Amino acid sequence: MKKFFKILQSRLFITALLMLIQVVILFTFAFFLANQFSLYYIISTVFAVLIILDLASQDMNPSFKLPWAILVMAVPVIGVPLYYLFAKSKQSRRISNRFKKYRALMRNTIPNPEDHISEIEAEDPQIAKQMRYVEKTAYAPVYRGTEATYFASGEELFEAILKEIAKARKFVFLEYFIIEEGKMFGDILEILKKKVAEGVEVRIMYDDIGSINKLPMKYDKKLEAMGFRVSVFNKMKPSLDAFLNYRDHRKILVVDGNVGFTGGINLADEYINEVERFGHWKDTGIMLKGQAVTKLTETFLQLWHFSRGENKIDYKEYASTETYESDGYIQPFADGPSTDDLTCELCYMGLINSATDHFYVMTPYLILDHEMTTALCHAAKSGVDVRIMTPHIPDKKTVMAVTRSNYRALLMSGVRIFEYTPGFVHAKSVVMDGKVCVVGTANFDFRSLYLHFENCVLCYKTRCVEDVERDFLQTQESCKEVTLEEIKKKGAFYALLQAALKVFSPLL
């Protein structure tokens, strides 16, 4: 009972309730008009036709167009107002102007004077082409003078984080989708308090919706009282605003501009298996030391200033000052709804299309558009060993059902799918031909690739490429391989349900 009343008093519940009231009022009004005036049905149908024409003219992924088209034509009374609230408003001038400011911040970076991509081009033109694309669209140069270390678990990465922040002398930046009170964040917080007392600058940024049911109200004020600078990204408001869709899903921790961490791991206890939520939690991360950390620092500062409405950034004050022995080529990059290209998705697709031997993926969610499905199927049909690892124990049952709705087409093309039976896979990593890996925050799903601010690290000819591949194959031993036969045995109703989930998955 105590827990129930706590939920009723939470900001998430109150905000959601206020938004629900707005939705009820909107549709009560719509149905009132519909009952009073039969002409309303005709008007809404006319609007539905106009929306279909509008969808056809828009430069939007067809996977987004189809569910909206079905909704507005099948139930215009509901579909028309929903479209103008959530789909059409994505093109609003206010959001567009905000994103223009962010793109300007992204372009204002410290240039890398060395063109390492030309060196790569002499060895592997295909890989060079992919890295050139990422460099151009994400303003992300390729670095050497950097050491990369891969962590196959949250526990290993957490231990490294504690060691590195204890060495901080100038600043520590933290940016996470989820922060939750507990052992993991508590241990980090204790060290950060000491660092602030020593004069170290500490900035903490977290996503409001990601952490809304994890942290008490006004937690940012509590952190500020400890001496930290705090920014809560895109605060949730009780209004029907499409901008709420755009979340900061990044995970970045930078120490003194010379050491940086990223990957799938948030600052909550399930990520280090201190508490069990969905069986064993399998996650991964990467630590960079050296020149490439500059890009992680820039990525943090850009969204920090965007979140706070600031324009000027003094990158040089926070740039990397140390060079490590080069461990291959490192390319940290960021993506988000404000960019002109779908950099994460097209980077993944470029690597899939470049693969000649194998392509392995770890992802918690597999919600694919037509283009990504085609790329994976084409690679498998071409003889590439394509393997995808997903959870067996889901964190969200509906999302897992949508994930499994993508299995059939992939399996029919020869893609192998493995579910991690001990629990939940939250890792976001790919490895191609034993030469290239990507470790970061972007899932193989619509929200990551279209709506969230994400960041990744692309590595070529580094030691961690071999580590990522070894980790995939070792983890595969704890997986159950999904077969086409067991999918077919589930019958026609299951296939129909999966088809419906797949069609409407972009709206989830």
List the helices and strands and how they pair.
Blueprint: H1 2-8, H2 11-36, H3 39-57, H4 62-74, H5 76-87, H6 93-107, H7 116-123, H8 125-138, E1 146-151, H9 154-165, E2 171-176, H10 183-197, E3 201-207, H11 208-211, H12 219-225, E4 229-233, E5 251-255, E6 259-263, E7 280-282, E8 285-290, H13 293-308, E9 329-335, H14 343-354, E10 358-362, H15 370-381, E11 385-391, H16 397-405, H17 407-412, E12 416-420, E13 423-425, E14 429-432, E15 436-440, H18 446-451, E16 454-460, H19 463-476, E17 479-482, H20 484-488, H21 491-504
Parallel strand pairs: 2-3, 3-4, 7-13, 10-11, 11-12
Antiparallel strand pairs: 1-8, 2-5, 5-6, 6-8, 9-16, 10-14, 12-17, 14-15, 15-16
Please, could you describe this protein's structure?
The chain has helices spanning 2-8, 11-36, 39-57, 62-74, 76-87, 93-107, 116-123, 125-138, 154-165, 183-197, 208-211, 219-225, 293-308, 343-354, 370-381, 397-405, 407-412, 446-451, 463-476, 484-488, 491-504; strands at 146-151, 171-176, 201-207, 229-233, 251-255, 259-263, 280-282, 285-290, 329-335, 358-362, 385-391, 416-420, 423-425, 429-432, 436-440, 454-460, 479-482. It is of the alpha/beta class. Helices cover 48% and strands 18% of the residues. The protein has three domains: 2-91, no CATH class; 95-333, Endonuclease Chain A (Endonuclease, Chain A, 2-Layer Sandwich); 343-507, Endonuclease, Chain A, CATH 3.30.870. An eight-stranded mixed sheet has the order 9-16-15-14-10-11-12-17, sandwiched between helices. Residues 5-9 have low confidence and may be disordered. The radius of gyration is 23 Å and the shape is globular. It is built from 21 helices and 17 strands.
